[in-house]
Amino acid sequence: METTHTTTYTARPIPPEVLDALRVTDDAGRPMTPYPDEEGGSPLRCCLRPSTPGERIALVSYAPLRRWAAETGARPGAYDEQGPVFVHAAPCPGPTTSALPFTQAHRVLRRYSPEGHILGGRLVDDDFRPALTEAFTDPEVAVVHVRAVEYGCFLYEVRRG
User: Is the entire prediction scored with pTM above 0.85?
Assistant: First the structure.
């Protein structure tokens, strides 16, 4: 008898309550410094879309695994890292689509255990869905981070469900 696994997953922006805190003081302890994005195209982690020319945005430091660990009780130890993310300078409505964002270029999927320890990574240069399905067929994977290859920046989190 053949078993079929169906895995559903959700791309998650930075939660609104975390964004509110980051807009005051980011995870590196610095105040937000908004500016108009003259060119557009910055990957916004609040609404999971590229910025448009002229939008007021900010580059803030964010510790995604630390925030997840605080929610789940995980203890990521040395895997707790922080890095730069673009967000709207003011609250926004969040994502307007359920489509996986920022899939137009090479990305790295990092898999983490329930304890917050890295289980591996995978370079994805075409269809994300099979790579995410593969990641979540491993019962030890609790969360996946999608990161940019060019700079290593965190783009968004993916969870089951």
Answer: yes
